[in-house]
Every structure is written in C-alpha cells, then in structure tokens.
Amino acid sequence: TPIIELADVDQIYAGRGTNVEALRGFTLDLRDGEVLTIVGPSGCGKSTLLNILARLERPSRGTLSFRGVNADNSDVEIGYVTQSDTLFPWRTLLGNVEYPLEIRGVSKDVRRERAVSLLERVGLKGFENHLPSELSGGMRQRGNIVRALVYDPDIVLMDEPFGALDAQTRLVLQDQLQRLCAEERKTVVFITHDLQEAIALGDRVVVMTARPGRIKVVRTVGLERP
Ligand code: ADP
Ligand code: ADP
C-alpha cells in the first residue's frame, strides 16, 4: 500500500465572478521512504497540493489516503517545513528542536540526545545554545528542518524550504537534507520552483504546468539513484 495516495483530486476556489481551478484530476502515489519533488511555475498549484496533503485544506473532489486509510481517519504524523522561519525566537536552537518531543512527553534525556544528534548531523554542533536571532538564515532553516524530523513523523512536507537562501547555502543544505532523509528513511514531498533542485533531491520529480484555462499537465520523471 502506498503511504500517500491522492486520487483524482480537484481543488476549486470560489473567486469574484469566476472560480479558480488550482488542481484538476490530480493523482499521486508515494511509496514509503520515497523522496518526491514537485516543480512548477508560480501559481500552478504546488502549495495547494501541499496544503491538501497536510490536511489544512479539503479537496473539492477526489480522495486522499494514507497507508490505505482515508485521511480523515488516519493517524499518520506529518512534519511541515515552509520557506519562512518558524523557530520560536525566545527559545534556543536546542530548545526549538526539542520542542516537538517536549509536547509529546518525551523525557528530557531522550529528547536532548535526539536533538543534539540531529543538530550535529546538519553541522550545527556548538550552536545549540544560540537564539535564532544569533544564527544565519541557512542555520535557522537547518533548525526548522531538524525540528520537523525530530519526532520521526511518517511524512515530511517541505514548501520551498531553501527559497530564501543564497545559491551556495542552498547547495550545502540540499546535500545535508538528502543525507538526512536517506538516513532517517523519510517519506518526503518537497516543493520547489528550481528544476535543478528538484532533480538533485527527488527520487521522482513531478512537473506541474499551468496552462491557459488552468488545466494541469503533470509529468512524472523517474531517476536512477546511485
Ligand atoms: P503555487 O504554490 O504553485 O504558486 P498555489 O497553490 O499557491 O500555487 O495557487 C494555485 C492557484 O490557486 C493560483 O491561481 C492561486 O491564486 C489560487 N489560490 C490558491 N489559494 C487560493 C485561495 N485560498 N483562494 C483563492 N484562490 C487561491
Ligand atoms: P513553555 O516553556 O511553557 O513551553 P515557551 O518556551 O513556548 O513556553 O515560551 C516561553 C514564554 O514565552 C511563554 O511564557 C510564552 O507565553 C512566551 N511567548 C509567547 N509568544 C512569544 C513571543 N512571540 N515572543 C516571546 N515570548 C513569547
């Protein structure tokens, strides 16, 4: 059974006068541990798709299932990383990464060990006690990513997480993210408007195209992994 199964989904927003068709007949299957990247121009429906997967929006038509169970009844845990910096400004980097474990009642020793290990694996050893304001944008975004992974969610959704970073930082973070997701065997849906990034990170790449009349052409490209 696929971990994510999106079948024939439409998303239509009621606009002034006309409706906006953000998704039409969108179908997608994801296997456990697969990294899927979605690339396409602005306005083609990428965020809409991610919001549906995150269950922040309900599709106008079609179904979403996780491991064969309708999303409404599923208990899958979903991590979400966005382009904007969502670290708590009043907490240290370590305090931020520990937070999801803290609210799940994980003991102090266990959560500290897990958070410290993840921070080390993205090159942030030594910065544990810094506040977000004392870190660079790239460091904060690494913090956001490990905070989304720390409690071992079933699925991680990423909406242009490197969109605000310079090209060199982006490459370093792509590399770290790829290693981390492989080590943690994470199922990831990653959105970007950068084709190079989509190809570098994805086991599979879905290309979304906005066409006149808002009809989506979706192509899936399978890639060989070394
Ligand atoms: P992308 O993430 O690829 O830039 P979006 O999913 O944000 O695209 O948007 C797809 C289309 O749906 C766009 O035309 C956008 O204006 C429209 N749209 C998105 N959200 C809403 C909304 N809440 N209400 C009305 N229109 C929306
Ligand atoms: P807790 O330790 O109870 O989980 P937090 O560490 O999340 O609390 O927050 C610490 C304190 O900061 C809380 O008392 C909270 O009310 C307060 N706080 C909430 N929002 C902000 C903010 N935007 N900036 C600074 N402090 C905030």
TrEMBL record:
Domain of life: Bacteria
Any one GO molecular-function label of the UniProt entry: ATP binding
Keywords: ATP-binding, Nucleotide-binding, Transport
Keyword flag Repressor: no
Domain ABC transporter: 4-226
Protein name as catalogued: ABC transporter ATP-binding protein
Biological source species: Streptosporangium fragile
